[in-house]
Design a protein that fits this description.
Blueprint: H1 2-19, H2 22-48, E1 70-75, H3 79-95, E2 103-108, H4 114-124, E3 129-137, H5 143-162, E4 166-173, H6 176-183, H7 193-211, H8 220-228
Parallel strand pairs: 1-2, 1-3, 3-4
Helix pairs in contact: 3-7, 4-5
Length: 246
């Protein structure tokens, strides 16, 4: 009986030793480690891979703005992001052959002041198009909604009331991360200022083409109104001097 018990115990001991035998580990563990290392390497490389800037969704084609003057109204509020947008605007209009000396920049405190400044600039007749740019980020109160709505409507009113192209370059975002993706070409973002600059050039060209040769068909009252808005009234181009506005 004792002998059978000893044999049984020995058999159990041998089976356990075999189940966890080091020889099996030598075959399994290295392959698993290699697989894990490959997965880790792949994962790490995908995380550190540089993200290219997103491309614009709008195709502007070839635009020649060499004879145009572009006014940029920018806010001091959210200065860092707005400065990035202004750089994008300058890049966009420069790509359309607008000379650097024909790009004028004026600051206002915040977005709420943009429509009024745009109205003054449009009526001065010193630029062919205006870009209003700023950044609004939603907070805890309704301030964001009120300002956003007022600025949007105000800029549209200046467009239609003065017949001067005024580009809406105001970002309305829920958080700062959304702003960064729309004001910079880094980390897969796209600086929308580039598109706004090109839009201003395209709309200025459109206005010039629409008004070309139309002066003779406008009555005296209409000519006076056009002249007051910087259109030259008699069909000729208005003389544009360096705007004191800037």
């Amino acid at each position: 009986m004792i002998f059978r018990t000893i044999l049984l115990s020995t058999a159990l001991l041998l089976s356990n030793t075999t189940a966890f035998s080091p020889t099996k580990h030598h075959h399994v563990v290295p392959s698993l480690q290699k697989q894990q290392q490959q997965q880790s390497s792949t994962s790490s490389s995908s995380l550190v891979a540089p993200l290219r800037a997103a491309e614009s969704e709008v195709n502007f084609g070839e635009l020649d703005g060499s004879d145009l003057r572009i006014g940029v109204l920018r806010t001091r509020w959210n200065d860092e992001h707005v400065s990035n947008l202004v750089e994008g605007i300058k890049a966009g209009v420069t790509e359309c052959k607008v000379p650097t000396e024909n790009i004028f920049i004026k600051e206002v405190p915040g977005a709420y002041e943009l429509p009024y400044a745009a109205k003054l600039l449009a009526m001065s007749g010193t630029v062919d198009a205006i870009i209003c740019t700023g950044v609004l980020i939603k907070g805890e109160t309704l301030h964001f909604e009120y300002i956003s709505d007022a600025v949007t409507k105000g800029i549209m009113d200046v467009n239609l009331g003065t017949m001067t192209p005024v580009v809406y370059g105001v970002l309305n975002c829920l958080d700062e991360e959304q702003v960064k993706k729309r004001s910079s070409n880094e980390n897969g973002g796209h600086n929308h200022g580039e598109d706004w600059g090109k839009t201003a050039v395209e709309m200025a060209i459109m206005r010039a083409e629409a008004l070309k040769g139309k002066g003779t068909k406008v009555g005296k009252a209409g000519q006076s109104e056009l002249a007051a808005l910087g259109f030259g009234g008699g069909g000729g181009a208005a003389t544009k001097e360096k705007p004191g506005f800037f």
